């Protein structure tokens, strides 16, 4: 006997849909199976299976007062003096890896 199914209708940006489906195709996973997997993970986690949060706040230097800017520069200088630094090539490599570029 066949398993009953339900229809799901969702609106999504075409570019997001195309990129995701292209990756799923490479993996050999139909979109409907991926959505079922996602829903099952929601059930198992009793919520979204990943963190949903705002990224760390980025300092907008153009909106800082002189004293705030001086404080931010001092923090960077202290990091450098204390040896809390990495080489620029490593920093860019980490950024590329983190953002998938």
From TrEMBL:
Organism from which the protein derives: Ruminococcus albus SY3
Top-level taxon in the UniProt lineage: Bacteria
Record family assignment: Belongs to the RelB/DinJ antitoxin family.
Family matches, as Gene3D superfamilies: Met repressor-like (1.10.1220.10)
InterPro entries xref list: Arc_rbn_hlx_hlx, RelB/DinJ
Gene Ontology biological-process annotations: DNA-templated transcription; regulation of DNA-templated transcription
Protein name (database record): XRE family transcriptional regulator
Alphabetical keyword list: Toxin-antitoxin system
TM segment ranges: none
């Amino acid at each position: 006997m066949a398993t009953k199914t339900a229809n799901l209708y969702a609106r999504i940006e075409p570019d997001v849909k195309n990129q995701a489906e292209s990756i799923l195709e490479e993996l050999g996973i139909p979109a409907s199976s991926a959505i079922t997997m996602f829903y099952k993970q929601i059930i198992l986690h009793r919520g979204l299976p990943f963190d949903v949060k705002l990224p760390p706040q980025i300092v907008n230097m153009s909106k800082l007062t002189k004293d705030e800017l001086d404080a931010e520069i001092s923090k960077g200088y202290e990091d450098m003096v204390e040896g809390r630094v990495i080489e620029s090539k490593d920093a860019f490599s980490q950024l590329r890896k983190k953002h998938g570029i």
